[in-house]
Amino acid sequence: MLPAPRRAVVTGHSSGIGLAIAARLLDSGWRVDGMDRSPCPLSHEALTHHPVDLTDPAALDAAMSGVLAQGTPGALVHAAGILRTGALGGLDPSAGEAMWRLHVDAATRLADRLVPAMQAAQTGRVVLVGSRVSRGIAGRSQYAATKAALASLARSWAAESIRAGVTVNVVSPAATDTPMLVDPARAQTTPKLPPIGRLIQPAEVAALVAFLLSDEAAAITGQDIAVCGGASVAG
User: Fold this and answer.
1) For strand 224-227 and strand 166-173, is the pairing parallel, antiparallel, or unpaired?
2) Tell me, what's the pLDDT at 2?
3) Best CA proximity match to 139, nearest among 176, 67, 192, 100
4) Which string of b and e fits 198-218 if b means at least 16 CB within 10 Å?
5) Series of mean pLDDT values for 10-residue runs along the chain (235 residues)
6) What is the structure's pLDDT at 1?
7) Which of 75, 168, 202, 215 could make an SS bond with 126 (beta carbons 3.0 to 4.6 A apart)?
8) Are the C-beta atoms of 32 and 47 separated by less than 8 Å?
9) CA atoms of 23 and 42, how far apart (whole Å)
10) How far apart are CA 126 and CA 70, in angstroms?
11) Strand blocks (E) in 27-110
12) Measured between alpha carbons, how far is 42 from 205 in angstroms, rounded to an integer?
């Protein structure tokens, strides 16, 4: 009898990087539980779409209960994200709160329910999609702060989980060719093209995420890995 396919929970699977990750995992034989408010354009027998507002604690808890009722997932990928910009003197507290709730609070709630089950199973992978912006950039302080928080969460959770066979990492892309780049909410800022001369492609980010979910990546944990297109080494 063939082994059952591994299951991954992927947030934000309806667009951008999350969509590319879900597609990559499905093509690799994973079953995917996708969590997103929006419908997913993918149609695949191994994909289960959970329509959920990730910033609604009760709705998210119910969705996780549904996932766990089917058994412990082998992986969690938190790719859902939004970008709101603003400079000092014009920062919008509600925008900062919205980003914190989606990027950080949702990640915390997901991990708090799913990672202990992985620890009990003595296996699991967690990848949080961060951003190169987490190092700080003018006009995006609130966004940067939420993405920087993900790196701290990942290192802390990795330290708690390493002996249970669970890895936790962050993947931080530079400017990536996703719908977020044309979001009217970021009209004040222009994406900076990486030194390679083009935008990062979502499939390139998905390839790294897929590797971090693999058995071969068992020794990589607590890391924030950049997909930067050369930005890290440019003068």
Assistant:
1) parallel
2) 42
3) 192
4) ebbbbebbbebbbebbeeebe
5) 75 97 97 96 95 97 96 97 93 95 98 97 97 86 95 98 97 85 60 83 97 97 93 71
6) 42
7) 168
8) yes
9) 8
10) 18
11) 31-36, 47-51, 75-78
12) 18
Element (H, E) at 10: strand 7-11
β-sheet with 31-36: strand ranges across: 47-51, 31-36, 7-11, 75-78, 124-129, 166-173, 224-227
CA distances from 103 to 72, 79, 217 (A): 23, 9, 24
The two tokens of residue 12 are 């934000």
From the list 9, 20, 133, 143, the catalytic residue is 143
Residues in the chain: 235
Q: Is 204 an active-site residue?
A: no
